[in-house]
Design a protein that fits this description.
The complex is a heterodimer of chains A (252) and B (259).
Chain A (H helix, E strand, L loop, with lengths): L2 E12 L9 E12 L3 E5 L6 H8 L7 E6 L2 E2 L9 E4 L11 H11 L4 H14 L15 H12 L6 E5 L7 H16 L3 E5 L3 H7 L2 E6 L2 E7 H7 L5 H8 L9
Helix pairs in contact in A: 2-3
Chain B lengths: L1 H16 L2 H18 L8 H34 L3 H5 L5 H34 L5 H28 L3 H18 L3 H6 L5 H11 L9 H5 L7 H26 L7
The chains are: A alpha/beta (252), B mainly alpha (259).
Chain lengths: 252, 259
């Protein structure tokens, strides 16, 4: 199996404020490997460094040291993003565009030919069940509909790697189920999915491998069942809580 | 180039789906038609005043459209977080800047075309012979001038956090250049050092957008610069816009995307 995503000794520091505060270390020495066809869950409490890792992988911020590559290409090269799809958490798309226009715009950025674009738009609009609203401006969409447009745009280039940042955040149970179905379908098609989530049950259901990050450091990585056994836990949630050092307080 | 063009097309769609352009156009049309309907002192050359008013309103409106449209592009991408899915595609920050510039410039050009069509229609009501060549040259020079305005505003949008600050500063700078730009050299002669050197430096550094203003010639039926001069003026505008875009890219390539 080829390595699709790799980070080596990845370190990211955010500069201190104007008051000469010390730099904040968001990631320290992160080593990750995601192989082809895996569904990889990226877990951690808020502020653990998950979004920073994704920001580096997507070329939004440069690493302070270390390296990150997608398909063997340095993430700082725009071409590294040719074969990926990205769904950000709670993003507002261009409100004055319709879903069809938005997908057409992103297809142009990938250099897709018009005939192929038409076919993909039709297929994706059907996949995310937005046929009835495809020609309405996005500003008229509900939160769930916007997230579904987001999923469609992430798939417009038929990506080999899908990076999802909390894809089910803010969705109702039906919406969550739909997203899980899509992830499962992509997995069956041999696609690689890298996603962050706070929903442990969801991660346990769909992921082959997980990595748990805490305070910028990789604390554990491996197959879910192996981690559960290693930490003498009943499920992934207990593993997660043990790793982040959660101590339940007694209720008076 | 197709990626730059794709980004530009989104900017153009934004312009014609927002109300700004329509409001300014209706306002210009109402004021011009109002002026046309009044006949002061039975002056047979009243059309000159109408042309003057209409061209002034066109200049004001297109400057406002160009500045406001450009100023909100990059801040809106960051505030609405649309910059993230955009840059997650195989598109560089340089291409985003180039696309935004092209989109704003073309959008301003389209708005300008609509305004000039109206101007020609109004003029045609009172003048038997239209100066087509002069109008085309005037619009062309106006559009070239807008390239510098768009470049300047785009640079401002990566420097100033608030859109309103950028719009205000750009409007003040542009109107400042329009009113006193050409007089700076004369002013410098009368100054003592080091004010003279500073004034001269300012004179040579600012984009002389007043050179592209041929309203006076249009209103007074005077000859306009030849096409060779228009070509040279275009090169001047292209050089300035290029420098401004390069500076914008230098600042934007390292800029944090979070708000």
């Amino acid at each position: 199996m080829s390595i699709i995503l790799r980070t080596e000794k990845l370190r990211v520091e955010y500069p201190g404020g104007k008051m000469r505060q010390p730099a904040k270390v968001a990631l320290q020495g992160l080593n990750l490997q995601v192989t082809q066809g895996e569904v990889f869950g990226f877990l951690g409490p808020n502020g653990a460094g998950k979004t920073t890792t994704m920001n580096v992988l997507l070329g939004f911020i440069p690493p302070t040291s270390g390296s990150a590559a997608l398909f063997g290409i340095d993430v700082r090269q725009p071409i590294a993003r040719q074969r990926i799809g990205y769904l950000p958490e709670l993003t507002y798309y261009y409100k004055f565009l319709t879903a069809e226009e938005l997908l057409r715009f992103y297809a142009k950025l990938f250099g897709l030919p018009r005939s192929e674009t038409d076919l993909r738009i039709k297929k994706l609009i059907a996949l995310v069940e937005l046929e009835h609203a495809a020609r309405r401006p996005i500003k008229t969409y509900s939160k769930g509909m916007r997230q579904r447009v987001g999923l469609a745009q992430a798939l417009i280039n038929n990506p080999d790697l899908l990076i999802l940042d909390e894809p089910t955040s803010g969705l109702d149970p039906l919406g969550r189920m739909k997203v899980r179905e899509i992830i499962q379908r992509l997995k069956n098609e041999g696609k690689t999915v890298f996603f962050s989530s706070h929903e442990m049950g969801e991660v346990e259901t769909v992921c082959d491998h997980v990595a748990i990050l805490h305070q910028g450091e990789l604390k554990a990585t491996g197959v879910v069942a192996d981690l559960v056994a290693k930490y003498h836990a009943n499920n992934l949630e207990q593993v997660f809580l043990k790793i982040v050092g959660y101590q339940p307080q007694e209720v008076a | 180039m197709s990626r730059i063009w794709a980004v530009a097309m989104v900017v153009i769609k934004e312009l014609y789906r927002r109300k700004d352009f329509y409001v300014l156009f209706v306002l210009t049309a109402l004021l011009t038609l109002g002026a046309l309907s009044v006949n002061f002192f039975d002056d047979p050359k009243i059309i000159r005043y109408v042309k003057d008013i209409c061209l002034l309103l066109i200049w004001l409106s297109t400057l406002i459209i160009a500045i406001v449209t450009t100023a909100r592009q990059l801040p809106a991408e960051r505030e609405d977080r649309t910059i993230f899915p955009l840059l997650a595609k195989p598109v560089s920050r340089g291409q985003v800047i180039a696309g935004k510039f092209l989109g704003c410039w073309l959008a301003s050009g389209l708005a300008l075309l609509v305004f000039y069509v109206f101007f020609v229609a109004v003029t045609g009501l009172r003048e038997p012979h239209l100066m087509w060549g002069a109008y085309v040259k005037s619009m062309f020079l106006h559009w070239m001038m807008l390239a510098m305005v768009v470049g300047l505003t785009l640079l401002g949008s990566v420097i100033f956090t608030a859109v309103s600050s950028n719009v205000t500063i750009c409007l003040v700078a542009i109107f400042g250049i329009l009113f006193i730009g050409e007089h700076l050299a004369k002013l410098a002669v009368k100054q003592a050092e080091p004010v003279r050197a500073i004034t001269y430096t300012l004179f040579y550094c600012i984009p002389h957008i007043e050179l592209f203003d041929v309203r006076r010639q249009i209103v007074n039926d005077q000859p306009l610069p030849g096409w060779l001069d228009c070509g040279l003026a275009s090169l001047y505008a292209a050089a300035y816009a290029g420098v401004l875009l390069y500076a914008t890219w230098l600042l934007f390539r390292r800029k944090s995307l979070s708000t």
